[in-house]
TrEMBL record:
Domain AAA+ ATPase: 99-253
Database matches in InterPro entries: AAA+_ATPase, AAA_22, P-loop_NTPase
Domain of life of the organism encoding this protein: Bacteria
Name under which the protein is recorded: AAA+ ATPase domain-containing protein
Pfam family, one: AAA_22
Length: 463
């Protein structure tokens, strides 16, 4: 009787390091050799190892491709990876094309301002103009001065830095004269402008915008920063307001978020089921960063299972990955921690995450009543949770909320826009939100044909 060699290879789930031969989901496969025509065929350990490592490498390659498509840790840097924002793109491009006009691009953190700034050079390329850079981006830092940011700008533009800058700061006219001779003209983007905390620098930049506009210098400035208004970035300068185009960057529409996720998976030969796409879209709350994060994690889960279609199961598993590793974990834990088991801090914070918000992320105390009542199973009025809202603004609870307005007309906003989606995910994972409420939150909108709208949006992006 012919001998029979049996090779047992155990694939271990959720491990990127192969056990024995390779990593895979909890599957045990036995390879047996048999006898045919008097010859014994044996699967050698080397063959099995090579087979499984090939499988492992294929998965790794797919994950790497997915990680190049969905980039939660970095802004988009290519026009073909940018979705939506047609109005903001139009406003920025037409403004910098207008003589004497500059741009201030502002909005919440995480809504895609830097991504738009990154692709500005591609957007400005005229038809038939050939290839060249049309924009340079300078990242501002805390402690920057008028001299330091313009030194970096001149270096990026390959302009000679005047020797006198070594012992003195330039003035707005010095900048104007230098940029007037710049050929070809450029767009200079000053990103994260809100980090500059020196009043003299802010005043000098405002004067620079005015003198560049007054003298119709062809090189343009685009100021990008986290802010609710232009005044918070450049101050109360009426003359500056006449020289700039204010472009507010709101949160993305659900359709735009759907486009990011759907198109991203298609680029790597994958697709996503409708209910999974709706779940990712609604959790993201208009923030492209979160859409990229959830899509990436869900895609990895699908690849681990050798699947090319992302389902709701993969998204739910991705939620667990996000909760275990996201940087908002500490902020959430610090905000809701309490020694009392009957504390409402977690429920109130989750309710805040569920409130309808305006384009800048603000909500009212009155808007918290409905989600909190649904969470608790009985009616709650403002006096029952007002102290919790106040506590969320305290240093002891991490100042996770900020407030504007006057008494009886206060509006609240999460200081970190990435915290509300995390709070929502924590509320679901911790069973704080009843199942019927969760089902309602992620149910398809009955009056909206998302397939048609998404197809139209993708068609527009190809034009």
């Amino acid at each position: 009787m012919a001998t029979r060699a049996v090779l047992l290879i155990e694939y271990m789930r959720d491990s990127h390091r192969p056990t024995h031969a390779c990593a895979h989901d909890s599957v045990k496969t036995s390879f047996a050799c048999g006898q045919r025509g008097g010859l014994v065929y044996e699967f050698s350990t080397a063959f099995a190892y090579s087979h499984c490592m090939t499988d492992f490498q294929a998965k790794l390659d797919r994950k790497m491709a997915l990680s190049r498509t969905f980039t939660p840790a970095a802004p988009v840097s290519r026009r073909d990876a940018f979705s939506g924002r047609f109005q903001q793109i139009t406003d920025v491009v037409t403004a910098v094309s207008e003589p004497g006009r500059h741009v201030i691009l502002y909005g919440e953190r995480g809504v895609g301002k830097t991504s738009l700034a990154n692709i500005l050079s591609e957007l400005l390329v005229p038809v038939g103009s050939g290839r060249r850079e049309f924009a340079k981006r300078i990242t501002c830092n805390a402690g920057d001065t008028f001299r330091s940011i313009w030194r970096r700008a001149f270096q990026a533009l390959d302009l000679e830095i005047p020797e006198e800058w070594s012992y003195g700061a330039p003035n707005p006219d010095d900048i104007r004269i230098a940029l007037s001779g710049l050929t070809p003209s450029m767009v200079i983007v000053f990103d994260e402008y809100d980090r500059i905390d020196d009043d003299e620098t802010l005043s000098a930049m405002a004067d620079t915008l005015k003198t560049l506009s007054d003298h119709v210098v062809q090189t343009k400035l685009v100021i990008v920063g986290v802010s609710d208004s232009i005044e918070a970035l450049v101050g109360e300068h009426e003359s500056v307001k006449r020289a700039v185009e204010e472009v507010q960057m709101p949160r993305m529409s659900r359709l735009e978020i759907m486009s990011i996720v759907d198109r991203g998976f298609r680029e790597v030969g994958m697709n996503i089921e409708d209910d999974a796409l709706i779940r990712v879209t609604k959790i993201a709350e208009g923030l492209p960063t979160y859409a990229h994060l959830l899509a990436l994690k869900a895609g990895h889960r699908a690849i681990d299972l050798d699947e090319s279609t992302v389902s709701l199961t993969h998204v739910d598993a991705a939620v667990a990955d996000v909760l275990d590793s996201h940087m908002s974990m500490a902020a959430y834990s610090g905000a809701v921690q309490s020694s009392r088991s009957d504390s409402l801090y977690a429920q109130v914070l989750v309710a805040c995450a569920l409130t309808p918000k305006d384009g800048l992320g603000y909500f009212t105390a009155g808007a918290v009543r409905e989600p909190l009542s649904r969470i608790m199973g009985r009616r709650y009025e403002i006096p029952a949770f007002a102290r919790h809202l106040n506590a969320f603004m305290s240093i002891e609870r991490g100042s996770v909320l900020q407030r504007i307005g006057v008494e009886r007309n206060f509006r609240y906003r999460f200081r970190d826009p990435l915290l509300p989606p995390y709070a929502l995910l924590s509320g679901i994972a911790g069973n704080l939100i009843p199942e019927d409420y969760v089902s309602e939150l992620f149910a398809p909108d009955p009056d909206v044909d998302w397939d048609e709208l998404l197809a139209n949006l993708l068609a527009e992006e190809k034009k």
